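Consider what follows.

. . .
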Amino acid sequence: MASGEQVVQIDDRRLRITNLDKVVYPETGTTKGEVIAYYSQIAPLMLPHLRGRPVTRKRWVDGVGTADAPGGSFFTKQLERGAPDWIRRMPIEHSDGPKDYPLADDVASLVWFAQIAALELHVPQWRFTPSGGRGMPDRLVLDLDPGPDVGLTQCAEVARIARVILGGMGLEPMPVTSGSKGIHLYARLPTADDGTGLQSSDDVSAVAKELARLIEADHPDLATHVMAKSQRGGRVFIDWSQNSASKTTIAPYSLRGRAHPWVAAPRTWDELDDPALRHLDLHEVLERMRSGVDPLAALAPPSTALTSYLAKRDAEKTPEPMPRTAYAGSGDAPRFVIQEHHASRLHYDLRIERDGVLVSWAVPKGVPETADRNHLAVMTEPHPLEYLDFEGEIPAGEYGAGSMTVWDTGTVSLEKWRDEEVIGTFTGQPGGRLGTARLALIRTGGEGEKSQWLLHRMKDADAQPSPGRRSPRRTGRPSPPEQENSADATAVPPFIPPMLSESGTPGLARSLSEPAWAEIKWDGIRAIGTWQRDGDGIGRFTLRARSGTDITARYPELTADGAPHLPAAEAVVDGEIVAFDHDGRPSFALLQNRMHLTKGREIEREVVRTPISYMLFDLLRLDGHDLTGMPLRQRRELLEQLAADLDAPVQVPPVFDDLEAALDASREFGLEGVVAKDPDSRYRPGRRSSSWLKLKRTHAQEVVVVGIRPGQGARRDGIGSLLLAVPSPEADGGLRYVGRVGTGFTDRMLRDLRAQLEPLRVQTAPLQVPSPDASDALWVRPELVGEVEFANWSPGGILRHSRWRGLRPDKSPDEVRVED
């Protein structure tokens, strides 16, 4: 075991923890060990507010830094690779398929979060249903966010006003000082038997918004419900939007990643009357717990997963097991049982472990023996885990009267678990009746108990489940683009290839319009962003490169919490992903650290090291309307309205109405150049247009890599230089040699180049190359595109003084054009 590591036993979990002496909060000297101790001790009060909810984490792997120099952080939603297998998880659909999100149902999970520097834990206002679906919200939240020159006492004043209104609605709010700036108000909502709310997230959001609007109307100098930051000066912003199904709020009792270890601390109303009201740190919150103070206890939802089961049974009259724990799971692969039930009619009960209960179906004819036959299955109430091995006689007159025996039992490897579809490979006991079978359950009608399903045995491991008939009701999760859950689902917009610019001169640019329209050329990579939100307010943001390649997973800060949540059902935007250096200048070389990564762990690490921004400059679709035929100036107005409340890393940079000023700014700040545009121009997907002219401050040329010259000295075992070409219809093989480049490489670039070029090696040159450069060359297929800076062209068409800038994976060789 490495130095500084130790394995701890928490209940029945074993967990390796490291670096307990590492300082996480430099200003207070608070260590990682103290953070872990806090979460271990606060768990009894905190877990009830987390249980059953997907946990989004905000991580500070290098500590929070100081007030003057904050440390880097990043959000993660999907469960980290390498997480212990006992971490409970539930899938949520994304554009590229379902992703597992962690749940926090025990102390060990909280300790593991602390071990990976997940200081802040954020959760939505809804919980998963026992069947794995997204439930209705069970609580309402208002985030009272102080604007400039506003403190906690003014937030408390707004909280008291909101309390009167909510109390009149039968909702008693409970305050939490957020540990960051303001105050959160929570109110518990009425729930159904399954523990979920009775109103949708959109309904609750509408109520919260109206409440905020009423407070603003009565107290315009004190509060505002408008999201625009320009409206918040001297007032408290009542953020009602966190009731959206796709939004999360810092969980009560969570630490904050501020300079001090403040906590999102539940408070009493008497405390809010104190003019010296302030935030509490972890030590103060633990002391309150030891004193028996838990102002938020009434908000904790009761465990209702087994309410229906218990209501149908009398423990004094039936031998069926009664649950000992509410959400206790095995922590291993999910278990299943198939029971043969001789009730009024013989049938079989299929039960699968999920979220601490056994989700159950009655299957009159049992598991199909072949793939050409589907059997009816009817969902029943969830059963306790103790039912996994139950056999016995249920007395006459009791619910389910008759004998029950275990037909087979084992474990299941789940592939999908959605409201309308469950797929998994079931492995029974050695020598048992089931053997190994890949089964699909497909909902055909109804919801919850008594909903009707088809049970299908799949032909082999590569087979796909029969789609059956899908319920017309939309579930709480967005579906992948290739699926349609309902007739009213918003269709996924087709990919719109970006409009391209021509090379130009300032003289040509001045002729486009008067006054001029100029935008900074950001020296990044082009990305088309697609936003979609379903009827329940669940949104997703996907990114595609100019080639159409899905690059969403490479930039989690643009798709996780804090990333764009657009106030629209659907939108398609055009922009540039940019990395900035320490001087605040766009750096294409720095962006190389991000654009080629595909492994989750590498991406997470680089998010902190190389942050990026998404600079938006065009809007192509909005709420089902194609805007490409609209003049640019109108598209821009809509874009600015749409993105008015977005924060970094998504920005809408300003437009210059003075071309000379734009060029001067580009020179002053060392930028690549500007793009002059005709404000009356339409958007022409996938086409170059003289309505957009790029004016580069430096010479840059896209090139095709055709060969490698071996290195010498320190590079003797690697790449010395690259041989370059550009497309030319007149040249042999369609390529013309333009020279070589041997400078501008970082060690990482060289490693990436070597890995990508090695599989492209060929024996013969793909074009004619002068003998001096071809003498010891290693040839590659001309498939990789890069970019170089250069001084000028020689009379013979060779790049002079070229310097490597990086690969262009967003471009193909046939897209390369010779720049003047």
Residues 318-457 form one domain.
